[in-house]
Please model this.
Amino acid sequence: MNSNVLEIVTILVKKLLHNEDLINNEEEIIKGLLELGYNLNDIEMAFELIFSSTEIIGVSESFENHNYLPTSQRIFSIRERFIFSSEVQNVLLILLREKFLTLAILEEIIHKGFNLFFNVGIKELWYLLRITIDDEILLTRIKNRISSFKELKDAGNFFVQ
Model:
């Protein structure tokens, strides 16, 4: 790996830290990097480095053996941050911290989110919760706890706000 790739990775990470959407702005970002004098091979390698290191984590035995890990903080990968909105990430962390969700259920929701949606907002998260959690009482408690869910009304698999 040459120094140009590292420079490009640094630029991309800075953009991520400023909440720039690398996926939807990919063409603009590539044009900008080309204008700065970087070649396409180095740019492609930098993008590959960033996105190849964030594989989806399946539910492992270690998650299944622990219902809750109260001293840990779930950190979303770069890929997860692209799919799940900031609001959804915050809601998921609240639900985990307040023990509405186990770590295994959280990982299952994240996995389903990747398989079903390109972007996960509050409406999509509520759908993911409904198809993952079989306990109607728990779903009601979650809906009452999270103000964003209170405004949603189920209409089959579609949502009305």
About this structure: Residues 53-71, 155-161 have pLDDT under 50 and may be disordered.
